From TrEMBL:
Top-level taxon in the UniProt lineage: Bacteria
InterPro entries in UniProt: Glyco_trans_2-like, Nucleotide-diphossugar_trans
Domain annotation Glycosyltransferase 2-like: ranges: 44-211
UniProt-recorded name of the protein: Glycosyltransferase 2-like domain-containing protein
Alphabetical list of SUPFAM superfamilies matching this protein: Nucleotide-diphospho-sugar transferases
Gene3D superfamilies to which the protein is assigned, alphabetical: Spore Coat Polysaccharide Biosynthesis Protein SpsA, Chain A
Any single Pfam family the record assigns to this protein: Glycos_transf_2
Length: 372
């Protein structure tokens, strides 16, 4: 057994253990929403939409069942070409709390979703702003429980993911590795790195929104959720990631293909911001190869290694599984798939290579627009 093989396998086991320890400990910081809702002033819900005819009806129907006493709902249409506007108008006609704003798309220098949210805020008057994606559906107590979490944590921004409505392999093959990466650069309470923001659902105090510069300060941002939470944190606000998955579902990631496309979109956009498309593609390509190796090597060492290298491979495999298990448990999904964590890491590497290839070819389209 060569010295290089021993050192390399030991380094892989150590790296996997360190990453797993960080992920597991970080999830222990995330508390569930309080059991009892709270009143905390007027809440203005802003929903950006573009060609969302398959989901917007359920989103609005659930928001209209909210038990919070002072609520307004503003839907901002970003130049939809399907039946989105027609469906929203039905809710406008049925409920005076719902309003529709139409735009012709973002001006130069603005990302479409960011511009839509900026326009929506300008039409609201709430003490709190709640940004939700159109593919979410909310339990009746969601708004009140988000306000209760803000009071409990003395927070200016509360954010939560939504749980899937259909379990699928995209969560443990793609989203679990993404979560490990996220917690290496961001934290649930904004105490290190960036602050965590989940686009599914972000509640922010209006005064904190204004102090951070609002969406105008992030006009061209594609990774808008993390950037927004970080801006609020940097302006002196307190941010918190909470577990609200018992009160919020998201159907936008209900298939492996949907998860792949959504993740690739975000990765291509993020890569372009590294230093331009060419450098971004190079970084994504390198990251893809590293992740493939990070996943495949523990399996090879565990199955074909001998002595110390096999033990190190098994240790790396167990650590990677522990990291993925903590994510799946947090999402209230089966943790049995975490045993295949090395496969997930390798699959995520392939996704990075796909994103790198898309960047080289000129970008990726999302609902007809280049997302870079």
């Amino acid at each position: 057994m060569g010295k290089g093989a021993i050192l390399g396998s030991a380094a892989l086991a150590a790296l996997s253990t360190i990453r797993a320890a960080r992920t597991v400990s970080t999830w222990r910081m995330v508390e569930p929403l309080p059991d009892m809702p709270a009143e905390g002033g007027k809440v203005s819900v802003v929903i950006p939409v573009r060609d969302e005819e398959s989901t917007i009806d359920g989103c609005l129907a659930s928001l209209r069942t909210q038990r919070h006493s002072d609520l307004e709902i503003v839907v901002v249409d970003d130049a939809s070409t399907d039946r989105t506007v027609e469906i929203v108008q039905e809710h406008v006609d049925a409920d005076p709390r719902v309003r529709l704003i139409r735009t012709d798309g973002p001006p130069p220098g603005w990302a479409g979703k960011v511009h839509a949210m900026f326009q929506g805020v300008a039409e609201t008057s709430g003490d709190w702003l709640l940004f939700v994606d159109s593919d979410t559906e909310s339990a009746p107590e969601l708004v009140g429980k988000l306000l209760a979490a803000a009071a409990r944590d003395e927070a200016d921004l509360i954010t939560t993911p939504g749980r899937p409505t259909v379990a699928n392999s995209g969560w443990w093959l793609l989203l679990a590795p993404t979560n490990v990466l996220l917690f290496e650069s961001a934290s649930p309470d904004g105490s290190r790195g960036k602050a965590v923001g989940i686009g599914h659902c972000i509640l922010v105090r209006r005064t904190a929104y204004d102090k951070a510069g609002g969406w105008r300060a992030l006009s061209g941002e594609r990774a808008d959720d993390v950037a927004f939470a970080t801006a609020v944190r940097d302006a002196g606000g307190r941010t918190r990631l909470v577990d609200g998955t018992e009160s919020l579902t998201s159907s936008g990631l209900d298939s492996f293909g949907a998860v792949w496309r959504s993740q690739r979109k975000s990765i291509v956009a993020g890569g372009a911001m590294v230093g331009g498309p060419a450098l971004g593609a190079a970084v994504l390509g390198a990251g893809g190869l590293l992740h493939i190796g990070y996943g495949l090597v523990p399996m090879l060492l565990s199955l074909r290694g001998k002595g110390f290298t096999r033990i190190a491979g098994l240790a790396a495999w167990a650590a990677q599984s522990a990291a993925h298990r903590s994510y799946m448990r947090a999402c209230h999904m089966s943790t049995a798939t975490s045993v295949f964590a090395p496969v997930a890491n390798a699959t995520f590497g392939v996704l990075l290579l796909d994103a790198a290839w898309r960047s080289i070819r000129g970008g990726d389209l999302w609902k007809g627009r280049d997302i870079r």
